Amino acid sequence: MRRTAVALIDGEHYPPVVVETLGMAADRFDFRGALFLGGTEKIAASVGEEGAEALYGLPVVFDSDQVRGLQRVIDRFQPEVVVDLSDEPVLGYEQRFRLVSHSLARGVGYVGSDFHFSPLSSERLSISPSLSIIGTAKRIGKTAVSGHVARVLQQTVDRRPGRPGVVVVAMGRGGPAEPEVIDGVSAGLTATDLLVWSRQGRHAASDHFEDAALSRVMTVGCRRCGGGLAGEPFLSNVRRGAELANGLEPSLVIFEGSGASIPPVGTDARLLVAGAQRPVDHVAGYLGTYRVLTSDAMALAMAEEPFASAAKVGAVIAAVREVKPGMEVVPLVFRPRPMEDVEGRRVAVFSTAPAAHERVLSRHLEEEHGCRVVSFSANLADRTALAHDLERPEMAEVDTVLTEIKAAAIDVVAEQAEARGLKVVFLDNLPVEVSPARPGRLVEIAKELAEMARERFESRA
Question: The pTM is what?
Fold first, then answer.
């Protein structure tokens, strides 16, 4: 079946060659128009839109700004796909990714001779207002932000009697083959509970267990494998997870991404989580541009030394706002929060935080929660190094294990703690705003996004 299309062309190609190519591709694409990207080596600079139409046999739009021109041809011709017939030097790597991002953000595919980008799955399956929380990479605190947002909104959304206010649908690399509901509302999940699941061969540190245990909300666990450049998983069962969430009749559904992969369902609002320590173009360039364009606000984590200077944080914010003017970006850091009182305890801490952050996190635990950090391991995601850390001599002084619910936290750390008779306390990572954001701004944004989701949902109903 032929798809409606617009072509991207340039003056570095001899017009008869472009015409021949358009004809050759006519069995696949119904070309409605073209965007002239520039270049005058093989076409006169004075050729206007009327002359170009005579040369190429279809309407041609000229614009000195390639992105603006792309928007114009999409608005005018309403194509299903953009067909890229340009090349260096008119269209380089950075410019091409920018155009891909803007095309996908409009729900329009983008193809070239040896590549094909498709818009992400966007069917709205939720029967309630929905919010997605996505990331630009792994280990940037997306699950911590998601859990915090879920906790806040659980207290603020309208709840029907006997129904959950918020349901989190989380997908992970270790999620279940069939989506499952974990009730974090009725009773707090303990290490013993998660060990039972772990001993059944399940990944009990998957994100939906973490959300249920730390945020005390209802969660639906899903799995995914692979992730495209724009975030589409190669495999996922999120669709079935969304249907399971519908059966719970929540007031709001939060779809939580995994790494840089995006839940393959449409949602009413979106919060993007990025890491300030990442290269600027990894956040706002390449297909990060697409993620920025399709999000309503950003939480910028790791916004402190030694990860990112104030200048670096400012550079990321500026790059994001260049892509999407007016985008609200909230810089933040994470601080550990034990889920139980640990005052006076001698603790071993197990985390996925970078080792360079050990001193800051240990000091916070000791000053704010009154424990003494005897041992600190940043190796929850490195099982070989983790085994070594568990055998450190100082472990003999420990009476309590503080662990995040990630990676090998349950099947290794909690198992070892139980075998040694040590108390296990789960560790949350609390987002804390830093300059130029004001304290409490993330909570305000969470509420604003929930209201935005409700309004957009009702406008479609």
Answer: 0.94
